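During the first year of the project, the team set up a workflow for recording each protein of interest as an amino acid sequence followed immediately by a discrete structure-token representation. This format lets reviewers and collaborators read both layers of information side by side without switching files. As required by the reporting guidelines, we include two representative entries from the current panel. The first entry is reproduced here exactly as it appears in our internal archive.
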Amino acid sequence: MAKNIILLLFRRSLGALISILATTTIIKNLSVEDYGIYSIFLNIVSLASTFTTLGIDAATGYVLQNKKYKREDALVNTFSLGAIISVISFFIFYGIFYNLHMSDFNIIPQDIKMFMVVSSVCMLYANILYSILIGNMSFKSYSFFTIIPNVSLLIALFITTRFFHLSLKETAFYFMMGYILTVVSLSIYLILKYKILKNLYSFKKEISLYILRYGFMSYLSNVITFLNYRVNIFIIGYYLGSKDVGFYSTCLVVIDFIWLIPSTMASITYPMFSDPNRRDLRKQLIPVITRSILLLTTLAFCGFYLLGDFFIPLLFGKEFLVIKSILLILAPGIILFGAGKIITADFISQGKPKVNIYLNGLALLITVVVNFVLIPHFGLKGAAMASSISFSCVFISSLIIYCKMTHTRILDYIVPNISDFKMILKARN
């Protein structure tokens, strides 16, 4: 496990650094209003790709590891289902983005809507292809391919800002090209490595239906989780405008950076503990990992907050110092939800994604209601309060349920021990 942790953590740290550099470049070369529009563009792309995966990406790790079907057969079915859904989604996205008249769609300029369509399709298929790598525990390949979109975007931004003028249209185009490059290169890699074209006869209705049935539960959970995390963007845009969307989106960039370690660990534990032969190891390690993540996320947040007066102007500009007070309100939710990622990922590993649906559904309801109540009165601080309350509720509820399921104590997941990190690093894959 130690090798995988280090590899994924390095990749995600590098990816986060590149993402922050790209975001910094965009912020410094676009107006705050244009950056707000670009943030809405990104959220619509992420929302569209999340809604149309049908849970195939979430189910892949479980299906490849639980040994119900041959791994090669499950892989071919995942690859093929992803291709079919991506083609269908292109026409769906095109019809929606060009014909649905809502405030968040109308704010996107017509000349970048096609970029939004193609980006959504490519992100959708890329996420499904990434899940094949995770499901096979090919973390080295996963680390390489997942960084391609960020690297290509940063290179294009650097060249443009060095010799030309960066516009909103060019920024959206570069984002799209990063995902096109990723999908093409990763598809070729998987086809050659796993001889997918030669094994297309393995595409079977039974396996595909199993993937879709299991994935649908995870799909609902992931969609609700995404909405819970991003719905603020659309409500802020409705009440406060694109400038405040830009500020809040910058907070999300920082949050994603703080969540590097919990996201990395969840990516490893999910496929690892989907193997039924590792049940005893799961019961031993999940409490250890959760309480360690709780400690590390707390330290990461405190470190960034204490150095925020230096880093925020350096990365985003002095105008963005306002986000420091927003991040402080978000702090409880950021810290607790980071640890909660381990528990919610393990619900899926145990074949119980329904639990996450109920938990995240409750959290989304809290987020939406509290947002509509607080944002008109408190602005961005109200949005931060809503997210912090919602994130905290997810962790507390999931921890109580998980402890009842596993017959363990709540304190085992909260109070860290000195020996915890040694135990995690020594655990076998």
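The second entry, processed by the same pipeline in the following quarter, appears below.
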Amino acid sequence: MSSFSHTALAFPPQPKPDPISHNSLLTVITSSTALTHLKQVHAQILRSKPERSNSLLLKIVLSSCALSSGLDYALSVFCQIQKPETHFCNKVLREFSRGMKPEKTLLVYEKMRRDGSSLDRFSFPPLLKAVSKVSAFIEGLEIHGLAAKLGFDSDPFIQTGLIGMYAACGRILEARLLFDKMSHRDVVTWNIMIDGYCKIGLFDHVLKLYEEMKNSDMEPDGIILCTVLSACGRAGNLSYGKAVHEFIKDNGIVVDSHLQSALVNMYANCGAMDLAQQLYDQASSKHLVVSTAMVSGLIMQLHPHILSLVAGATACIETW
């Protein structure tokens, strides 16, 4: 009995729990449907420090962008990533520039600059998009200078972004200078420049640039036609507005609700309520935006049929 009491009992060592694999964590992040889930995975990553943790943190950043429009948590996680690779940063820049708070894109840019992360030609379009949305002219100038320093300012996508940035910041002359220097302009570039003129009330420039576009064998899309019709209506240029309408019909351009609304608005703003009413009556379906355009025109003209149109627009809203 005594010999037994002095015998050391040997127990097998307890196995250490296997660390959660990278793929398992990635699966959990991808399937998360709430920000609280992502925060739990985030805590697990910080505790276990798995391999390729930067890629997991990046996935958390991108997933949290989809789950929360605030982006505060996404930004805080991104700031924990040590010197993220450029292609990772570009993904974050794109997500932030599309979000409800595009100004936070510039905070990502500032971290990249502090960390010494390099920027490539894919970094600049989302940055310029964000700058345009918040009209951050000083930051836009800095980004333009950096793009030029790195030799990216001849890239057509970056040139288009720069034109949009200057136009959005009210620097239409600088935008036009860059526009004229471009060797190739796509329909997006033309749209940005035409819209820039329209927003600051230079309606004659809108029409001149629209003619220049057609002469260059570039086909205008519905967005550009809406902008040109808006310029015609605001300038009271009924004859040109009619010509644009004829162009639409002659070229078989599909008239969706937005283009139909632009036509109704143009005729109403030019005082041609009979033509606006005719278009409205011919519409196969009274879409909300078209009904709203017609009601607005009638309000301006104090038309006696306004009450019936208001009732029609209300019905559209209720079935929207």
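For the second entry, the following points were noted during internal review. The two ends are 89 Å apart (CA to CA). The CA atoms of residues 276 and 282 lie 10 Å apart. Both points are flagged for discussion at the upcoming steering committee meeting.
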